[in-house]
Every structure is written in C-alpha cells, then in structure tokens.
Specification:
Largest sheet: 5 strands, mixed
CATH class of the largest domain: Alpha Beta
Mean pLDDT: 89
Shape: elongated
Number of strands: 10
Oligomer: single chain
CATH architecture of the largest domain: 3-Layer(aba) Sandwich
Strand order of the largest sheet: 4-5-6-8-9
Strand content: 15-25%
Number of domains: 2
Order of helices and strands: HHEHHEEHHHHHHEEEEHEEHE
Radius of gyration: 26 Å
Distance between the termini: 59 Å
Helix content: 40-55%
C-alpha cells in the first residue's frame, strides 16, 4: 500500500492538486472497470502538458478509493456509485463533489475538535487540510458541511462510547453478583437498551434481595470531570424511581474502561435545568459533574 493510500484511508485530506489529479484519473476509468496495470501504462500517454504525471494519477486512484467512489479488486479498478457524476463535472464542481464524498466516507481525526463547540474552529484544522478546504469550498459551504459532518460524527461517537460503557457495566454487575455467591442473579442482569432506548435506563441488575436496580449508563472521555448528555426522559425517571441510578464510566480506549461512580436521581437534580415557562421544555442537557461528586462503585447490591 502506498504512503498516500494509507494517509487517505486514515482520513487525511488530499491537496488541491491531488484532487484535480483524481478527477483526471476518474475520467480515464472505463464504466465497466479497467485493468490497473493497463491503465497505469496508459497514464504516460495522456497529454497533460506536464501538469499531471503518472505518479499523480496513481495517487488520484487512492483519493477515489478513499472517497468510496472506486474499488480495486484482483488488479481491476471498478467505478462505484458517484464516480461518473464526479468525473463528468467541471474541475471546480468535481473537486468540490469529490471532497464532500471523501469527508462523508471517512471522518478526519480533527473533525470532532474543530466542530465540538457547535461552531467551526478553523484553527483546529491542520494547515494542509485547511488549505484544501479553502481552495475547494466557498466559506458558507465549507462551514455548513463541516458542522453537519461534525454533528453526525459526535452522535455516532457518543453512541459508540455509550455502548462500550454499557457492556462494561453489565460485566461488572455480573461479576459483583457472582462474587457475592449469587450466580443465578448474575445471569439475570440485562442490557435493556438493546430492546428499547425509551425506558429511561439501560440496564436492569438484581440486588441480593431480588429487588431491581435500574441503571442509566453514560460513557465519557473527559478527565477530572464527567461530561455527558442526559435526556429529559432519563432525568424524569431518575427523579421518581428510587431504584434508578446513573453510572458513569471513563472510556479511554476500546479495552480501557474505568468506573467513575454512581449518583441517585435525587443527587442528579441539582444539575438539571428548569423550564423557562409552561410553553418551553428542555429535552436534553449537557451535564458536567466533578469527579468527587460521585459515590464510589456501582449502586449497592443490598437495599
């Protein structure tokens, strides 16, 4: 695998020249597919006045593959949906469409940081990527696209981190009950979020007296404080259900999850907003809780 292909597969952006090279590569690929070796030999015969060398067009292949509009299998380059329209466009429109496809197909590592505050922070975009974006996209299109992609990325990342945290808490609850000599109760721990996300909690876990703990799990990557989003449905459930508890986990990596602690619904109330009036109701709140505010471990197994 070439260095360029590795970079583009890792979510880095091509230069404007590489985008234009990719357009020219796309225009040379047959709709039914092209033998890669034959195509690369033909690159040397295309008169581009020295602007685009064979190596540029080979890098263009990597750009198209990273954008999800071209695949390579057994030495054959096969066009995918979207390549025909991109290749048929003008250089300006084609570069813009290709860049959009690339950003939608692969999430750059910097996107979350550059859009995490709800506004585009261009200073947090690497210099080379920022130069490409400024040349290929007008300011309004650039900001709107990156904010939309950043929101999608944030929601997907939150869901992924939440899933990791829930799996970890299920494992901890089962281990705790088995260690207490109740393997039957351990088997009764359930991740109910897989059935419905409207219950106001993610996990049900028995206590030793067979009453049920209802646990809402939040995963966070923040350190020192725990920052997460709580829905109104989750908060209202916690306020009326004495068996409800919030458990927060710090997700450092896929296999590095740490239990921060837990809070009961009453203890969560101080972090909740109030409705501005009868006609306006909050639906989700970003909560920032100091680590020392959490009770240690999981909600107790005994009442």
């Amino acid at each position: 695998m070439t260095r360029e292909r590795r970079l583009f597969l890792d979510g880095e952006l091509p230069t404007p020249h590489q985008l234009r090279s990719a357009l020219r590569t796309g225009r040379l690929i047959d709709q039914s597919g092209s033998n890669a070796e034959d195509l690369r030999s033909a690159y040397r015969l295309v008169p581009y006045g020295g602007l685009y060398r064979s190596d540029d067009l080979i890098v263009g292949e990597a750009v198209l593959i990273a954008a999800g509009v071209l695949s390579e299998s057994d030495g054959v380059l096969v066009p995918l949906e979207g390549l025909g329209e991109i290749a048929a466009a003008s250089d300006v429109d084609g570069c813009e469409a290709l860049l959009v496809a690339l950003l939608e197909h692969q999430t750059p590592l910097w996107l979350g940081a550059a859009t995490g505050g709800g506004a585009l922070e261009e200073d947090l975009i690497p210099d080379q990527a920022r130069a490409t974006l400024r040349e290929a996209l007008d300011p309004e299109t650039r900001e709107g696209l990156l904010l939309r992609l950043g929101l999608s990325y944030s929601e997907a990342e939150q869901a992924r981190i939440g899933g990791i945290a829930e799996t970890f808490v299920v494992t901890c609850c089962r281990r705790e009950l088995r260690d207490a000599g109740a393997p039957g109760l351990a088997d009764a721990v359930r991740r109910v979020s897989e059935v419905s996300d409207q219950l106001g909690y993610d996990i049900t876990a028995p206590r030793l007296d067979r009453s049920t703990r209802r646990i809402e799990v939040k995963g966070t990557r923040s350190t020192g404080r725990s920052v997460f989003y709580l829905s109104r449905n989750e908060a209202e459930r916690g306020l009326v259900d004495p068996n409800w508890a919030l458990v927060v986990c710090r997700v450092v990596g896929e296999d590095d999850v740490r239990l921060v602690g837990h809070l009961g619904g009453g203890e969560m109330q101080r972090y909740l907003p109030r409705d501005a009036c009868d006609e306006a109701h909050w639906q989700s709140v970003r909560v920032d809780v100091p680590e020392e505010s959490f009770l240690p471990g999981l909600p107790p197994m005994s009442g």
